[in-house]
Amino acid sequence: MAQQPNLNKMMQQLQKAQTEMMAAQDKLKDEVVEASAGGGMVTVKVSGDLQILDVKIDPAALDPEDAEILQDMVLAAVNEALRSAQQLAEQRLGGIAGGLGLPGM
Q: Which of 4, 20, 44, 58 has its CA 20 to 30 A from that of 78?
């Protein structure tokens, strides 16, 4: 006869993981990643919960004749910062969910 899983133990593990997940998500708000484009002409800071905190543009990048290049640099820096923040969140939260050993997590 196959051994039945201990439901109480599984519920305790789920509750513990939920508590850890909430704490990790809360900590992500305080973590910041930074990305730049154009050799540092544009720098963007994003929090771990995907909020854009800061955008810095070097005055040398302000060329009224070629605003498209500046727009591309801002877009590239924002996208890279968001990718970095998502990767940070996956690292922080993935270990918690993965520790449960549940399918699909």
A: 20
Provide the β-strand partners of residue 36.
Answer: 43
At 48-101, the pLDDT tens digits run 889 999 999 999 999 889 899 999 999 999 999 999 999 998 888 887 766 555
Q: Is there a contact between 1 and 77 (Cβ–Cβ < 8 Å)?
A: no
Q: 61-100 as b/e, with b when 16 or more CB fall inside 10 Å?
A: beeeeeeeebeebbebbbebbbebbeebbeebbeebbeee
User: What domains lie within the chain, and their CATH numbers?
Assistant: 29-90 (3.30.1310.10)
Terminal Cα distance for the chain, rounded: 28
Residue with tokens 């923040």: 85
